[in-house]
Amino acid sequence: MAPVLPNRTEPHAPHPVLRAAWIAARWAMAGIFIYASIDKIAQPAAFARDVYNYQILPDAMVNLTALVLPWLELFLGLCLLAGIWLPGAVLAVNGLLLLFLAALLFNMARGLDVNCGCFSTGADAAAMSTAYYLIRDVVFLMIGAFLFIRVFLPGIWRRKAPRRPGTRKMENAQ
Predict the structure, then answer these.
(1) Residue 104 neighbours by CB under 8 Å, 6+ apart
(2) pLDDT digits (tens, 9 = 90+) for 136-173
(3) Which pLDDT does position 10 carry in this prediction?
(4) What is the DSSP letter of 114?
(5) Half-sphere exposure at residue 122, Cβ-oriented, CA atoms within 13 angstroms
(6) How far is the C-alpha of 36 from the C-alpha of 74, rounded, in Å?
(7) Coil, strand, or helix at residue 4?
(8) CA-CA-CA-CA torsion sign (41, 43, 45, 47)
(9) How far is it, in rounded angstroms, from Cα 2 to Cα 15?
(10) First-to-last CA distance in the chain?
(11) Which helix (H) or strand (E) holds 96?
């Protein structure tokens, strides 16, 4: 009787804890981006002032950024929530998180203490320290990195399907 070789079509399922962490991270990042977009969409002029205060963009780009960025955040958040277009959404979310962190670091290096404009705009925004914003953004980036690894390098955390007794490895089968 010929030995039974493992079925190579069996999926290598991720560990249930990693699957739960994946869903939680995806929904958390979706909630962050959706929530961040709401006030900016409702008050584009106040958000434009926050963008201007960063003193990074040319004046001609401030209003365009203030109008487009919140809708992009909403769209990306909805993609993450629905689980659609995940590679693009995860890549764009991580790109934005890196951009936001770089803008904060750039202004911190210049000695500017600007209102983040992340979740509320203008005078409505709570006064927080730049250090708080940096720590928060690093935590967000860690969640984004987890999503990135899960989407683009899924084999890292996959567990091998258990071998059935009496099976041999393919490379030993001759």
Answers:
(1) 116, 130, 133, 134, 137
(2) 999 999 999 999 999 998 777 665 556 666 666 555 55
(3) 41
(4) -
(5) 14
(6) 8
(7) strand
(8) negative
(9) 32
(10) 15
(11) helix 86-109
Which residues have CB under 8 Å from 67's CB, separation 6+?
A: 44
Give the global pTM. 0.78
Residue at 65: amino acid letter: T
Segment 2-13, tens digit of pLDDT: 555 444 444 455
Q: For residue 164, how many other CB atoms are within 10 A of its CB?
A: 10
34-38, long-range: CB within 8 Å, 24+ apart, which pairs? 34/73, 34/74, 34/77, 34/78, 34/81, 35/77, 35/119, 36/70, 36/73, 36/77, 36/118, 36/119, 37/70, 37/71, 37/73, 37/74, 37/77, 38/74
Q: Both tokens of residue 17?
A: 């804890």
Look at the block and give the residue holding tokens 């995806």.
Answer: 26
Q: Does an H or E element contain 31, and which? A: helix 16-42
Burial 113-140 (b: 16+ CB within 10 A, else e): ebbbbbbbbeeebeeeeeeebeebbeeb
Distance CA 110, CA 87 (A): 35
